[in-house]
Q: What sequence folds into this?
């Protein structure tokens, strides 16, 4: 409400406390405590969390954190109740016997209890402002401006009352707006606010008034946003301490639309408090304003405040008086003097009338306002002048800027920064040529290029270092305290110097770009289009020449350094050491400035310079563990803005060119938790940018490949959600990931859709994810063609989680800029993105800065050579597969030629089969020798390799004895871990007693508490599951096995064990634990690893491959001897190749068809995960196999897999004749038809177009590209002459039935499976479907969660079990439990602080467990305990001691199975 009968906050301002009390409450001391920007911008535990509420002493850091993330609600923070419950929020604990007197005590009591009011939100903001250093103040005000909040213009010191004008804080703020000229043309303007000339409207009040002045101003400027904080804003309180006398300012910026509230940019100033008490502020405002607006209560004529009003009335400036208690229409009493009564008027009417009056007044006033002119007033402190470092930094920067005066902007860089000009670009181009020689290029030409490179470096070195650069290097090397201010000032002044020219050039470029686009749309092929493109290129060059910022200065320093290092000469007359330059850049990185990683103009990485800077960084900070994040996206998709919001980084939001990396420090508290010491963030220029339209697509691909390869995770920005608009960027990204896969780098990615209108519609998002997956798969096919890579879908390239790694984010602005505030959802989205990044951090491999430095060089060298396997490890099997493919093509061509030669030699003996076979065998043996020197792929013995590796780790320990003892020990299912731990000893007198107790427990075999046992059990299970996932990611069936796989897994297990020990305060693991854990995990994985390696060997071993091909080539050989035509030979070759391809495709298609049949007709597999669990429990009961039960209890995931394999095998055997065989026959007929159609279409196409055999093959492969999996290259490299296409068609048509899979002879389930890759088998597909569950086990009874992976909320199990089933005993006994989990948790197993174990050890949940309704009463598990009592007691070496109730023994197996049916009967399972 605009009107409020309460006393105003201004009136009540300091009733209860002063600044000292406030600063004390906020844990600040203005005279001793300074908030530093460097501390605020590092990664802390607090900054990683979302804070809806906080304790009072956390208000400052929470406010700053929210503000840096551009949180719309940064000023509204809920305060958590303190220990005494003194807060406005309701207390949840109620006094049950409260009487009426208590209820009405506040009304009846005369004694006012002193209560501490909540801190006013604006007091939090101003307290942070007062205690911030200059850089943090500037950052805060810049963020306030981005959030469309009012900015502090005049600020009284809370202790001295001296008025401060914080001009420095406005230096990085620009405002943009659009207006219309007299011809209704839109004129765009962008200016720094400190020098923008605009009208200014000042608002102030005399006395106390009921309407809120701030709220009134909000309605005038933006009625949907609280630009000025007022008493009705959420979180406001009755008292405020620091706002009286503060003047805030904001600007209204029009969008050039008819709906604009004002037609021009206008500044609005708001004086808080009674203007009569703040005379200096009032004087400054009234002198500088274009229009003064005063809000008045009912005043007497003789009131002193009326004298001030009269003075304003008699002044020449327009005046609008608003009477709070009068009902008076807007009246102009004389020119430019208005009065207006607010009483009984709606807010919209007041705003409408007031806007009209303001517009009229501005049209009369000639006065304009320039913010920096406020500094000319006396009796105020200007922060820039009052800070010695700021002042001296400015003077040094101005000295440099004077050197640029009277110079044409486009020529400045050429004279001041010559080392990065044409000569550097020539060097980059020549270096590319050197690394990419032409096919027929001689060594002498390569040598000449090397000499040319050195000559160009000599020319670069001969350039003098300009006076401008000498001053810069001197200032930054001086070690003075003003260095940061100097760098900031230089950036500000350079931007100011170039902004007008750059703005005009951008406008010119956009107009020319529109002209070129229009000509393209008109399909104009004339000379005009060529000329217009030339103009566009010229403007683009002017843009590059005019851009001049700190990044160009640092680029110049880099090239000065590189030229000196390359020619090994020192420049004459230097006042500094060349070796000091990398140190200078490293210091700037530490201070938060970005370092250019790739020169965007030259499209080149200055490797010498970048590695030298990183070497210095390592010297200064140590060889830190780094996590690297890169970001990719089209221009204008919000990459830099997002990094700014997520991490508070200061990347230039103006168009970035090239790639820059910035260091983000991690606080000491977080280093141990994250296992990283810092984060490196790599920002890139926009892909497909119009300014670089003349540049080839190759550069975009190259840059994307580079930053993807450098990063642990790449954030991929997509503007909107239309797949058609995404294709350009996605193809670049997919191609980059394909290249990374080739060099065995495995980065991950997060897709971020920006500007999505409805981010809450779950179904819509799921559909969007589906469309994204389809688009990625489509783009992968296109990219694979460029990379000659046989991948089918995106998931073959990178393991991406479409559910968790695809984000749909709201647009940054809520409404249309320039007046739109930040979207409330945007900050939440940024927090979600931060959580996703942290999740990737927790799973990522750790690399050191030295490793990152090497990767920068190696990857760039690989890109230069266009050989992406350069300097990166590659398995010998990959090399063999590519070598073999090329060699076989060559062999086939050699075979054809050789056959022709042997025709004459053997023509008289062609019918002598023995002679022909002998000749062929000799020829074949020679061919094989040229391909194979030894057998590269051997059988593997996983456990042997594991034990060798463990022996290397524990050379000085008795590992052999452990190996023997561990052969039968499965750590994943042991009853107790007591034997694996060594308890830590306590110190002191009490410590001796504790140690004695521990020793006694250890002798009894009870060294660990139940809590510790459960913790270790959960830890072991998680390590095993994560190791399984890593094994799957190796893709051994396709990529081959390498011993390094085992090394990686063992290292991972070792790291996890070390981390777990660091958390535990009670025990450490013995070496035996690690050895047995590794052996147990690899024993489980041995079968899968061996099987995958077998599949790889069968597909890739050259000996086996050539053996399979021998008969095919002998057949071709005989055809030549028999004088067959070239068409017949080609047809024979094609049919032999088609045989393998068609077989793969038919079997794969049939397998997919059968999966649907299985899901429909197999009862155990036609439901959900719960239905399958019911089926398994029934099977177990029917078979009464205790070993199977224990596998189900201890290793549920493995048991599920085995059951699914059995069910699918039985189904296929049972339904072979009615399902499997007909499906295969149908697909054989369909494939045969498709191939014949393709043959006919290709023949017709070639004859119509008079083409050759190459065209026939190309058409043939295109026709079958969606049906068969093959490489066109393999066909094109087979030699063929004089082909009769009609004969070729007849040959293929005749031979086709014979090469189709034979389903009539010995075809059965076994042969069907034998032809399928492991991932294509129906059982493996179904295992994957059913395995996408949580699988977390209850720590007490081992019941498995049936929710989906990474689900929200609590776990959910089918039914909890008797805890004794999993080996749990009553405390202090060996008696197996017969109670339920929550009873055990509450009554038996407690932590030291009486919190339920589940909450502590399960990462967030189990026993806040929900359970399906329990009508069946767990009859099943009662029967199980009775049936297998002896087995359980022997298995755990413990006893139930007669504790089993007699009524349990009444349950039969039939009862147990029927109890499972009740779940379905009552609708719990469908």
A:
């Amino acid at each position: 409400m605009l009107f409020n009968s309460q006393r105003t906050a201004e009136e009540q301002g300091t009733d209860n406390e002063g600044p000292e009390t406030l600063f004390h409450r906020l844990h600040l001391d203005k005279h001793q405590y300074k908030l530093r920007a460097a501390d605020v911008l590092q990664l802390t535990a607090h900054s990683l969390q979302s804070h809806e509420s906080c304790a009072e002493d956390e208000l400052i850091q929470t406010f700053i954190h929210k503000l840096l993330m551009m949180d719309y609600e940064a000023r509204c923070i809920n305060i958590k109740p303190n220990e005494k419950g003194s807060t406005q929020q309701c207390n949840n604990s109620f006094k049950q016997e409260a009487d009426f007197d208590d209820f009405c005590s506040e009304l009846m009591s005369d004694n006012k209890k002193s209560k501490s009011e909540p801190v006013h939100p604006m007091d939090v903001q101003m307290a942070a402002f007062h205690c911030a250093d200059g850089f943090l103040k500037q950052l805060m005000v810049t963020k306030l401006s981005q959030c469309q909040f009012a900015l502090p213009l005049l600020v009284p010191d809370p202790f001295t009352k001296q008025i401060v004008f914080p001009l420095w804080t406005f230096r990085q703020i620009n405002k943009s707006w659009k207006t219309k000229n007299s011809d209704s043309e839109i004129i765009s303007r962008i200016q720094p606010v400190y020098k923008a000339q605009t009208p200014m409207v000042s608002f102030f009040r005399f006395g106390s008034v009921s309407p809120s002045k701030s709220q009134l101003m909000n309605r005038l400027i933006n009625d949907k946003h609280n630009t000025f904080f007022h008493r009705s804003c959420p979180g406001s309180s009755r008292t405020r301490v620091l706002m009286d006398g503060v003047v805030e300012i904001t600007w209204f910026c029009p969008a050039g639309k008819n709906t604009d509230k004002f037609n021009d940019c206008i500044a609005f100033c708001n004086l808080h408090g009674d203007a009569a008490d703040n005379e200096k502020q009032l004087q400054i405002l009234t002198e500088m304003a274009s229009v003064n607006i005063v809000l008045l209560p009912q005043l007497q004529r003789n009131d002193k405040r009326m004298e001030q009003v009269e003075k304003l009335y008699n002044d020449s400036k327009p005046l609008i008086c608003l009477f709070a208690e009068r009902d008076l229409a807007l009246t102009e009493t004389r020119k430019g003097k208005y009065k207006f009564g607010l009483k009984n008027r709606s807010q919209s009417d007041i705003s409408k009338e007031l806007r009209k009056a303001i517009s009229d007044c501005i049209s009369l006033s000639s006065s304009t306002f320039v913010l920096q002119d406020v500094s000319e007033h006396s009796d105020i402190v200007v922060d820039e002048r009052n800070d010695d470092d700021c002042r001296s930094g400015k003077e040094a920067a101005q000295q440099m800027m004077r050197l640029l005066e009277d110079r044409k902007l486009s020529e400045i860089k050429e004279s001041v920064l010559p080392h990065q000009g044409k000569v550097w670009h020539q060097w980059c181009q020549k270096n590319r040529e050197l690394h990419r020689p032409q096919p027929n290029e001689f060594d002498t030409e390569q040598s000449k290029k090397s000499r040319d490179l050195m000559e160009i470096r000599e020319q670069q070195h001969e350039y003098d270092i300009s006076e401008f650069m000498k001053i810069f290097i001197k200032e930054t090397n001086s070690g003075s305290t003003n260095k940061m201010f100097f760098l900031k000032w230089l950036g500000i002044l350079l931007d100011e110097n170039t902004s007008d020219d750059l703005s005009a050039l951008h406008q010119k470029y956009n107009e020319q770009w529109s002209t070129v686009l229009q000509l393209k749309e008109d399909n104009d092929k004339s000379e005009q289009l060529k000329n217009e493109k030339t103009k566009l290129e010229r403007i683009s060059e002017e843009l590059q020449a005019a851009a001049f910022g700190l990044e160009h200065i640092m680029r110049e320093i880099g090239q000065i350094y590189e030229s000196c290092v390359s020619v090994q000469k020192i420049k004459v007359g230097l006042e500094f050491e060349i070796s000091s330059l990398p140190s200078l850049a490293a210091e700037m990185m530490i201070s938060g400035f970005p370092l250019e990683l790739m020169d965007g103009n030259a499209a080149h990485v200055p490797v010498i310079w970048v590695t030298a800077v990183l070497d210095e960084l390592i010297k200064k900070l140590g060889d830190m563990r780094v996590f690297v994040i890169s970001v990719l996206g089209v221009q204008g998709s919000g990459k830099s803005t997002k990094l700014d919001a997520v991490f508070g980084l200061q990347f230039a939001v103006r168009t970035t060119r090239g790639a820059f990396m910035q260091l983000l420090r991690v606080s000491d508290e977080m280093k141990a938790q994250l296992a990283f010491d810092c984060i490196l963030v790599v920002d890139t220029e926009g892909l497909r940018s119009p300014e670089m339209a003349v540049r080839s697509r190759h550069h975009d691909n190259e840059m994307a490949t580079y930053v993807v390869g450098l990063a642990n995770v790449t954030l991929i920005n997509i503007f909107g959600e239309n797949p058609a608009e995404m294709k350009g960027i996605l193809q670049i990204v997919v191609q980059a990931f394909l290249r990374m896969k080739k060099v065995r780098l495995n980065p991950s990615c997060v897709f971020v859709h920006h500007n999505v209108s409805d981010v809450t519609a779950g179904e819509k998002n799921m559909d969007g994810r589906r469309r994204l997956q389809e688009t990625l798969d489509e783009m992968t096919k296109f990219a694979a063609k460029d990379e000659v890579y046989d991948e089918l879908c995106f998931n073959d390239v990178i393991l991406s989680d479409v559910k968790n790694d695809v984000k749909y984010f709201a647009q940054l602005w809520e409404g249309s800029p320039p007046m739109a505030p930040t979207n409330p959802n945007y900050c939440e989205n940024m927090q979600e993105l931060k959580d996703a990044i942290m999740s990737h951090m927790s799973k990522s491999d750790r690399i050191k800065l030295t490793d990152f430095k090497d990767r920068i060089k190696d990857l760039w060298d690989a890109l230069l050579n266009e050989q992406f396997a350069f300097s990166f490890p590659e398995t010998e099997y990959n090399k063999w597969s590519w070598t073999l493919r090329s060699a076989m093509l060559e062999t086939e061509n050699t075979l054809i030629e050789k056959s022709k030669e042997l025709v004459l030699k053997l023509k008289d003996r062609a019918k002598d089969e023995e002679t022909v076979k002998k000749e062929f065998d000799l020829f074949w043996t020679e061919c094989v020798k040229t391909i194979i020197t030894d057998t590269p792929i051997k059988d593997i013995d996983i456990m042997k390799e594991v034990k060798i590796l463990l022996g290397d780790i524990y050379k000085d320990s008795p590992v052999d004895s452990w190996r023997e003892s561990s052969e039968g020990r499965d750590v994943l299912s042991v009853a107790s871990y007591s034997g694996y731990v060594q308890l830590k000893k306590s110190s002191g007198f009490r410590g001796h007693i504790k140690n004695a107790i521990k020793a006694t427990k250890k002798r009894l075999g009870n060294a660990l508490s139940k809590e510790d046992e459960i913790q270790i059990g959960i830890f072991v299970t998680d390590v095993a599951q994560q190791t399984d996932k890593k094994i799957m990611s190796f893709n051994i069936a396709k990529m081959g096995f390498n011993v390094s796989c085992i090394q990686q897994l063992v290292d991972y297990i070792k790291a996890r064990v070390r981390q777990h020990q660091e958390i535990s305060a009670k025990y450490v693991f013995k070496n035996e634990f690690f050895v047995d854990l590794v052996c147990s995990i690899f024993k489980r994985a041995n079968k899968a690893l061996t099987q995958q390696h077998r599949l790889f060997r069968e597909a890739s071993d050259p000996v086996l491959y050539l053996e399979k091909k021998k008969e095919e080539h002998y057949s071709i050989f005989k055809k030549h001897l028999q004088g067959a035509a070239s068409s017949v030979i080609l047809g024979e070759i094609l049919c032999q190749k088609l045989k393998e391809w068609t077989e793969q495709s038919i079997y794969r298609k049939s397998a997919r068809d059968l999966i649907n049949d299985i899901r429909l007709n197999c009862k155990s597999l036609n439901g959900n995960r719960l239905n399958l669990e019911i089926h398994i429990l029934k099977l177990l009961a029917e078979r009464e196999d205790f070993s199977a039960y224990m596998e189900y209890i201890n290793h549920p995931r493995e048991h599920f897999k085995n059951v699914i394999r059995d069910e699918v095998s039985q189904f296929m055997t049972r339904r072979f004749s009615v399902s499997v065989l007909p499906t295969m026959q149908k697909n054989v007929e369909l494939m045969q038809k498709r191939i014949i159609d393709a043959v006919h279409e290709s023949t017709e196409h070639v004859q119509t177009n008079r083409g050759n055999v190459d065209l026939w093959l190309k058409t043939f492969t295109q026709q079958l590209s969606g049906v068969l999996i093959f490489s066109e290259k393999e066909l094109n490299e087979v030699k063929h002459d004089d082909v009769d296409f009609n004969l070729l068609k007849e040959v293929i048509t005749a031979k086709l039935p014979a090469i189709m899979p034979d389903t009539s002879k010995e075809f059965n389930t076994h042969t069907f499976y034998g032809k399928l890759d492991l991932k294509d088998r129906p059982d493996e597909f179904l295992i994957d479907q059913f395995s996408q569950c949580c699988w977390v086990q209850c720590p007490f009874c081992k019941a498995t969660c049936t929710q989906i992976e990474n689900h929200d909320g609590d776990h959910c199990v089918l039914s909890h079990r008797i805890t004794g089933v999993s080996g749990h005993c009553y405390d202090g006994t060996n008696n197996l439990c017969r109670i339920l989990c929550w009873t055990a948790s509450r009554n038996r197993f407690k932590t030291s602080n009486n919190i339920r174990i589940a909450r502590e050890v399960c990462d967030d949940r189990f026993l806040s467990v929900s359970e399906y309704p329990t009508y069946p009463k767990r009859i099943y598990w009662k029967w199980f305990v009775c049936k297998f009592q002896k087995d359980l007691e022997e298995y755990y070496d413990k006893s139930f001691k007669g504790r089993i109730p007699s009524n349990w023994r009444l349950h039969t197996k039939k009862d147990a199975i029927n109890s499972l049916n009740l779940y379905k009967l009552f609708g719990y399972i469908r």
User: Anything to note?
Assistant: The radius of gyration is 39 Å. The mean pLDDT is 78. The CA atoms of residues 1159 and 1166 lie 4 Å apart. The first helix runs from residue 19 to 25.
